[in-house]
């Protein structure tokens, strides 16, 4: 991706996260990126193309890190939860807080881009889903997909604004402590009710 494209993606990521996709004009993105009027149409074709580029800019990173975090043998639901949460933490540490907030916003509001996100999530995380199915014998795929969606929403909500999480709890927990607590809750979400747990 060239320098102009990177500036447009970074500006759009921040503006879409702060105001919502529908509330941000292409002209606003271009001004924030310091580009000319034709730049978005030249590089991305449309606002939808720009949003797609913003979403995909970090999805490959998350999916690759999630796959790498999965143990080769003896996987538990707790392993899956850590492999689910840690790649999003890596995005946060790489300066991707706006991306996390944007994706969380899309999940919460059903705004433009949700279809791209849903399709991409299941495709890029096929190995993860297969392991969860193996650890959840007899649980319908619909239920597993629901658990995954809720785990993703929770992870993005917490990591998209850790300071808010601290304020809600009147806590001075470190980021690592928040992440550890989050991984515990995601483990419970993925495992389902105690009677359904096999690990």
Automatic annotation (TrEMBL):
Q: Which residues form a coiled coil?
A: none
The HTH tetR-type domain is annotated at: 2-62
Query: Which InterPro entries does the UniProt record give?
Result: Homeodomain-like_sf, HTH-type_TetR-like_transc_reg, HTH_TetR, PsrA_TetR_C, Tet_transcr_reg_TetR-rel_C_sf
What residues are annotated to bind DNA? 25-44
Q: Which GO terms describe its molecular function?
A: DNA-binding transcription factor activity; transcription cis-regulatory region binding
The domain of life is: Bacteria
> Mind telling me what this protein is named?
TetR/AcrR family transcriptional regulator
């Amino acid at each position: 991706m060239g320098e102009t494209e990177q500036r447009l993606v970074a500006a759009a990521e921040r503006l879409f996260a702060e105001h919502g996709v529908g509330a941000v004009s292409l002209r606003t993105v271009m001004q924030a990126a310091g580009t000319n009027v034709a730049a978005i149409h030249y590089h991305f074709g449309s606002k939808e193309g720009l949003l797609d580029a913003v979403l995909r800019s970090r999805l490959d990173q998350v999916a690759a890190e999630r796959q790498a975090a999965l143990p080769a043998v003896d996987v538990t639901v707790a392993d899956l939860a850590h492999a689910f949460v840690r790649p999003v933490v890596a995005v946060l540490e790489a300066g991707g807080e706006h991306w996390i907030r944007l994706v969380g916003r899309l999940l919460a509001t059903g705004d433009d881009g949700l279809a791209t996100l849903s399709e991409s999530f299941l495709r890029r995380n096929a190995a993860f889903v297969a392991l969860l199915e193996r650890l959840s014998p007899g649980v319908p795929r619909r239920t597993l997909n629901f658990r995954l969606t809720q785990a993703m929403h929770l992870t993005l909500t917490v990591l998209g604004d850790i300071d808010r999480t601290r304020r809600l709890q009147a806590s001075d927990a470190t980021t690592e402590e928040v992440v550890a607590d989050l991984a515990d809750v995601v483990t419970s979400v993925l495992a389902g009710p105690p009677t359904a747990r096999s690990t």
